[in-house]
Amino acid sequence: MREILVETSARHIHLSAADLQVLCGEGSSLAVRGMLSQPGQFASTTRLQVKGTKRNFDGVTVLGPTRSASQVEISLTDAYALGIMAPVRESGDIKGTPGVTLVGPAGEVTLKEGLIIAKRHIHMTPADAQEFNVVNGEIVAVRIKTKERSLVFEDVVIRVREDFALAMHIDTDEANAAGIKGTVLGELIKL
Ligand SMILES: [Zn+2]
Predict the structure, then answer these.
(1) Can you give the pTM of this predicted structure?
(2) 7, burial (CB in 10 Å: exposed 0-12, middle 13-18, buried 19+)
(3) Which residues share a beta bridge with 50?
(4) pLDDT for res 92
(5) Ligand 1 centroid – CA 173 distance (Å)
(6) Which pLDDT tens digit goes with each residue over 101-123?
(7) Pairing assessment for the beta strands 167-171 and 121-124 based on DSSP bridges
(8) Percent of all residues in the chain with a pLDDT value above 90, rounded to a whole number
(9) Ligand 1 centroid to 191 CA: how many Å?
């Protein structure tokens, strides 16, 4: 069976077009700093401050393109540092999650909701899903072999879309728990 590229997402921000205007000024747009593995997705040159109740994070990268709703993805360690307890959610599923304040060069936005710890997931195309014999929303495990901290992650959700590229996304806590440095491949295990 084909192995899956495992990528680590550091804390980041997705913005709505409206919030981007408030934070960075009327008529501003996101400029590409680097393309990501998912087609069309990019790290932008825009960085914002995320304000917590205990401390703030400066220089948090905004990913593009803009989305219908703003969302901030952090690790559990980040949540403790900020002083705001975020739930584990799939990207986009932000109903009832805590809000957080973002500070940009032109202004400030306090989100009513949208602070989440991303549920670990695998992006894949329908053809990949067929090859791995899984369906969208299925929960699988992924074995990751590293030098000293090999780990099997359970509770990994499969996300299937025509415009996805095969990759597993974990956060920095998960990457550190498995001792991941650089490029690592994972083995999908059906549960
Ligand atoms: Zn992802």
Answers:
(1) 0.96
(2) middle
(3) 57, 102
(4) 95
(5) 15
(6) 999 999 999 999 999 999 999 99
(7) antiparallel
(8) 98
(9) 21
Q: What is the mean pLDDT of residues 123-140?
A: 98
Residue 38 Cα to ligand 1 midpoint, Å, equals 8
5: CA distance to ligand 1 center in Å? 12
Q: Indicate the pairing of strand 56-67 with strand 12-16.
A: parallel
| Mean per-residue pLDDT of the chain | 97
- Tell me the Ramachandran region of residue 53: left when phi exceeds 0, alpha when psi lies from -120 to 50, beta otherwise: alpha
Ligand 1 centroid to residue 10 C-alpha, Å: 11
For residue 144, give the nearest of 174, 172, 189, 185 by alpha carbon: 185
Mean pLDDT, residues 17-44 taken together: 98
What are the structure tokens assigned to 12, written together?
């980041």
pLDDT (0 to 100) of residue 1 = 79
Both tokens assigned to 84: 């705001």
Collect all residues with Cβ–Cβ distance below 8 Å to 49 and sequence separation of at least 6.
56, 57, 58, 59, 60, 102, 103, 104
> What's the pLDDT band for 188 if we cut at 50, 70, 90?
very high
Kind plus residue range of the DSSP H or E element containing 46: strand 42-51
Strands 88-89 and 115-118: parallel
